[in-house]
User: Fold this.
Amino acid sequence: MRNDYPSVLLIYTGGTIGMIENPETGALENFNFDHLLKHVPELKRFNYRISSYQFDPPIDSSDMEPSMWAKIVKIINYNY
Assistant:
């Protein structure tokens, strides 16, 4: 079934860009991308279907290796 609007798959593997400040402690914590539209309501202006996948636990960039690349390929293939 083809949709008339584009879709975006956001894959979060880990890192600072996926962190959010805890308002009580000020510490950075992992952001739950399932709540992306709640925290970034401006995205609703676009006529995109936005899906997300996040590694659990997040992977440090120094631990990114070919097996992780293969996992990303499988995630893209499954969601395509």
